[in-house]
């Protein structure tokens, strides 16, 4: 029916308007750090390591440990999660003391 169709359209419009995106540059260090808190509304997540030397390890739900988790290699290593996106907290650790070349994009 027309009223049911309008109701579904309004519901979709409201849920889409609540999705916000962001882009952030992260300074990754040799200690595990929280980069995103848990968010049950997370729709996608993109992480990229643009450092020419250092690697990074990403962990979901607990502190990151070097070489245990998702590795982001040097020179553009990244991961794009858009299907079954983790909604738990996101942590990261680096193989060098200071890596200001990590990009985080999400919604």
Report on the structure:
Helices cover about 15% and strands about 40% of the residues. The protein is built from 1 helix and 8 strands. By secondary structure, the chain is mainly beta. The strands form 2 sheets. A 4-stranded antiparallel sheet has the order 1-8-3-6, with no helix packed on it. The model is unreliable at about 10-15 (pLDDT under 50).
Radius of gyration: 17 Å
Give the number of helices.
Answer: 1
Low-confidence stretches: 9-16
The gross shape turns out to be: globular
Structural class: mainly beta
Per-chain topology:
Layout: H1 2-17, E1 22-29, E2 33-36, E3 45-49, E4 56-60, E5 70-72, E6 77-81, E7 90-94, E8 98-106
Antiparallel strand pairs: 1-8, 2-7, 3-6, 3-8, 4-5, 4-7
Short description:
By secondary structure, the chain is mainly β. The chain is built from one helix and eight strands, in the order αββββββββ.
Keywords:
single chain; 107 residues; mainly beta; 4-stranded antiparallel beta sheet; 1 helix; 8 strands; globular
